[in-house]
Design goal:
The complex is a heterodimer of chains A (425) and B (364).
Chain A: H1 2-44, E1 59-62, H2 70-86, E2 93-96, H3 103-114, E3 119-122, H4 128-137, E4 142-146, H5 151-154, E5 159-164, H6 166-186, E6 196-201, H7 206-222, E7 227-232, H8 239-251, E8 256-260, H9 265-273, E9 277-280, E10 292-298, H10 301-312, E11 320-323, E12 330-332, H11 344-357, E13 379-380, E14 392-393, E15 395-396, E16 399-400, E17 418-420
Parallel strand pairs in A: 1-2, 1-3, 3-4, 4-5, 5-11, 6-7, 6-8, 7-17, 8-9, 9-10
Antiparallel strand pairs in A: 10-12, 13-14, 15-16
Chain B: E1 7-11, H1 17-43, H2 47-59, H3 62-87, H4 95-113, H5 119-148, H6 152-174, H7 204-223, H8 225-235, H9 237-242, H10 247-274, H11 285-295, H12 300-323, H13 328-350, E2 351-355
Antiparallel strand pairs in B: 1-2
Helix pairs in contact in B: 1-13, 2-12, 3-7, 3-8, 3-10, 3-11, 3-12, 4-5, 4-6, 4-10, 4-11, 5-6, 5-10, 7-8, 8-10, 11-12, 12-13
């Protein structure tokens, strides 16, 4: 008897809860329906032939990690900004976080397409092959993959790549670093010969090589005696390895550190050691108030808006798009005045203007040598293949033309003045 | 109340099956209530809506069901793999490494021999290579255990790290493009060495393989002489020795079997679905499988349900984070609570609490 009674009680409770749940749910859907209808009225008049006007566009985002990774946080903030700028409602976008670079990425993309997304973004290099797989299966959905290399040769109408000319931002951050070194020399803290910077990289990948080289060239443009040591961690996110890498560089006599890896490892090591740090992906001033100098980052908002608008208006998305200083894709964070040398802001404004009008080229072949010789010609591996076949001449008009043949970087020269401590990765 | 004399725990006599299931049912109900309280307190969301989202995440569409099936299949294969070792009381926590090494062998065949051998021959070779690699990886700690009585938990765990580093090395060797640290999809254009797809169902083959293995493992463990030897060694090594079982031989043989099946799981991942190899491709399944096998009390058929439960919770948690824009960790908290209650309920199935002051209230 007791058992039956308790069973009955449980049943009543479950049914009661379920009833409450479904009521709340229908309320939510009607609310959503009315807002959707509301936005329908405002835009429907304007767009007549558009296949996916603002009201029925749905955007899917795939992120490798969540907001704990500075790399993904930078994408997520841009996505939220683009959504707000375009006035999309809450049921018009979906975020999928922690999607690894494997079959899960294809699954996530296909599920987003099933959920009615007309455009899907993925943020990590290793997602590309799985995005291509999904793109082949869903020809009506646009797939935009950041940092990839294959769209310009794949010939798939709905698969697109994008990147930014981040070497311009790195160069400017390098100028700020060089001015800091000059200040240290003037103050007598170091001699001109001791102006050695350290750089913690992830892999010997072109994106990293391009980044540290442009950073170095920026610094050398204002501090001619500078040299640099580079170490690699073999991971895009390994807090311990990045911290150890930075400590090793500091012990080797590096007086300023920058990094291309996504954890807080290097910045915190610098803060502990009191060594100035040039960051990446975003400002780390909150955690490192005494050592953070400046950070370059890619602002993905312009690309997100461009691609989403293209789908709204039924226009083509470029197969391979490169953001620049002009498009607002390459940005520097605020300088930390507590660390930066005086006059840095003015100098940066000057450099930025020169980069924008083309009077200054980051990889001007007169500013660097390889094995003591000027580089007059270089064939880069622009069309990705397993044998790394060099296929495209990239030195034109007296400079290495980075990110113009393809959005993803392909600068792989080892220039003089930079020492690679290890090349295992 | 006098705390010293209130409670006394005793082992239960055999509980009837419906009693055990009643306790489990209560545990799940309690877990859902606690999850509801946590959800409301932390996020302000309606808990019933959250539960519905979990179901939608697992069963919402045909595709989601296939993905659920695929994830269950792989977890099930790994769980079946570790079972014989655990039944023998050999703490094999090296499933992760055995999967990786099987996957690595598969990837090596696909990269080095893709296009050079007819596809059927390549696939046969891959099956053989992956199982052999897994068997060797499982066999090494077993041989050391049998010969020198080394600690198998530490040894198998260490083998995981060795396997991860080996995979990392080969990924750098085969990376595309240079320096990227990724291989990408292997033979994307030629599909050489890809396991065949049955009709339009991407994951059907993996699911069928896992079901065949389940039946095979059931009969191996309960009906074969070798399965019996495993059980005897697991119960008591001395007894086994006394009745003339060569314990060392059984340990090595069983671990090689365990490793071979893990290697097969690696094959299914690399050649069946992902078509690449990364250091994280096993995704912790080597460890999750231990829980699946224990929860199912080493019964292969029960493992279908326990692996379903774990995959369901995982898929549900992922859907919650997408729909409610919550961090993935929130879903993991709910999963943790539910597992805590389910594992905890096993205690109440094996033992009963006697409240000394009032013996009638002995049920929980």
């Amino acid at each position: 008897m007791k058992k039956i009674l308790s069973l009955a009680l449980v049943l009543v409770m479950v049914l009661g809860l379920a009833a409450c749940g479904s009521k709340a749910d229908t309320a939510a859907t009607t609310a959503a329906a009315t807002t959707a209808a509301g936005s329908d009225e405002t835009t429907a008049a304007a767009e007549t032939e558009a296949p996916a006007a603002a009201s029925n566009i749905k955007v899917g985002f795939i992120f490798l990690h969540d907001e704990n990774s500075t790399y993904d946080l930078n994408f997520m903030n841009a996505a939220k900004q683009a959504i707000a700028d375009l006035g999309l409602t809450e049921d018009q976008y979906l975020f999928r976080t922690n999607i690894p670079e494997g079959q899960e990425c294809y699954n996530a993309a296909a599920e987003l397409a099933d959920a009615g997304c007309n455009i899907i973004f993925a943020d990590s290099f290793g997602h590309e092959d799985y995005i291509i797989q999904a793109a082949q299966e869903f020809p009506d959905v646009q797939f935009c993959h950041a940092t990839g290399t294959k769209a310009h040769t794949q010939g798939l109408a709905n698969h697109h790549n994008a990147f930014a000319a981040i070497y311009q931002g790195r160069y400017m951050a390098g100028v700020a670093a060089g001015m800091k070194l000059n200040q240290m020399i003037e103050e007598g803290k170091i001699t001109a010969d001791e102006a050695k910077m350290g750089y913690v990289g992830a892999y010997t990948y072109a994106e990293v090589v391009s980044g540290y080289t442009s950073f170095f060239l920026g610094a050398r443009s204002v501090c001619p005696s500078v040299t640099m040591d580079v170490t690699f961690t073999g991971s895009w996110y390994d807090e311990t390895a990045e911290k150890e890498g930075a400590n090793k560089l500091i012990q080797n006599g590096c007086v300023l550190i920058s990094q291309h890896a996504d954890s807080m490892g290097a910045p915190t090591a610098c803060e502990t050691a009191g060594v100035p740090n040039v960051s990446y992906n975003g400002s780390t001033v909150a955690a490192c108030p005494n050592t953070f100098l400046v950070s370059s980052r890619i602002d993905w908002t312009p690309y997100y808006e461009l691609a989403i608008k293209a789908v709204m208006n039924g226009e083509e998305i470029p197969a391979d798009w490169t953001g620049t200083l002009q498009t607002g894709s390459v940005v520097l964070t605020e300088l930390n005045d507590a660390v930066a040398a005086s006059g840095t802001a003015e100098k940066l404004a000057e450099v930025k203007a020169a980069l924008e009008d083309g009077s200054l080229q980051v990889f001007d072949i007169n500013t660097f040598t390889v094995n003591g010789e000027k580089v007059e010609s270089f064939m880069a591996d622009v069309d990705t293949d397993p044998d790394y076949t060099p296929d495209t001449e990239v030195i034109e008009n007296g400079a290495f033309q980075e990110s113009t043949k393809r959005s993803a970087p392909y600068f792989t020269l080892q220039i003089d003045g930079i020492t690679l401590l290890d090349q295992a990765y | 109340m006098n705390k010293h004399a209130v409670l006394h725990i005793s082992k239960r006599d055999n509980l009837p099956w419906y009693g055990a299931w009643a306790i489990r049912g209560c545990a799940i109900l309690l877990a859902l209530i606690v999850c509801a309280i946590v959800t409301t307190a932390l996020t302000g969301e309606n808990p019933i809506g959250v539960y519905k989202t979990m179901f939608a995440g697992a069963f919402g569409t045909k595709r989601k069901m296939w993905i659920l099936g695929q994830n269950i299949a792989i977890l099930l294969v790994v769980s079946l793999a570790v079972t014989p070792a655990f039944k023998m009381r050999f703490w094999n926590v090296g499933g992760e490494g055995q999967i990786l090494i099987g996957g690595l062998a598969t990837a090596a065949c696909m990269i080095l021999l893709g296009g050079k051998l007819p596809n059927w021959a390549l696939i046969v070779l891959m099956v053989f290579a992956s199982m052999l690699a897994g068997a060797v990886w499982g066999g090494i700690p077993a041989i050391c255990k049998a010969k020198w009585n080394t600690n198998e938990t530490l040894f198998t765990l260490m083998m995981n790290y060795v396997a991860t580093q080996l995979v990392a090395y080969f990924v750098i060797l085969w990376e595309v493009p240079k320096g990227a640290g990724k291989i990408g999809i292997i033979n994307q254009s030629t599909m050489a060495g890809w396991l065949p797809q049955i009709g339009s169902y991407k994951y059907l083959l993996n699911i069928l393989v896992s079901l065949v293995l389940t039946v095979a493992m059931y009969f191996y463990l309960t009906r074969s002489k070798q399965g019996y030897e495993i059980a005897v060694v697991g119960e008591s090594e001395r007894t086994a020795r006394y009745v003339g079982i060569k314990v060392g031989k059984v340990i090595v043989r069983t671990m090689m079997l365990s490793g071979a099946v893990c290697g097969l799981a690696g094959l299914l991942l690399v050649s069946g679905t992902d078509h690449t190899i990364t250091t994280t491709i096993a995704d912790g399944r080597g460890f999750t499988a231990v829980m699946v096998a224990w929860l199912a009390k080493f019964n292969p058929f029960s493992m279908i349900f326990t692996s379903f439960l774990l995959v369901f919770l995982d898929r549900g948690a992922s859907e919650i984070s997408t729909i409610y824009s919550l961090n993935h960790s929130f879903g993991d908290i709910l999963t943790g609570i539910i597992l805590f209650f389910i594992i905890g309920s096993e205690f109440f199935i094996s033992y009963k609490l006697n409240f000394l002051k009032n013996n009638r209230k002995e049920e929980k």
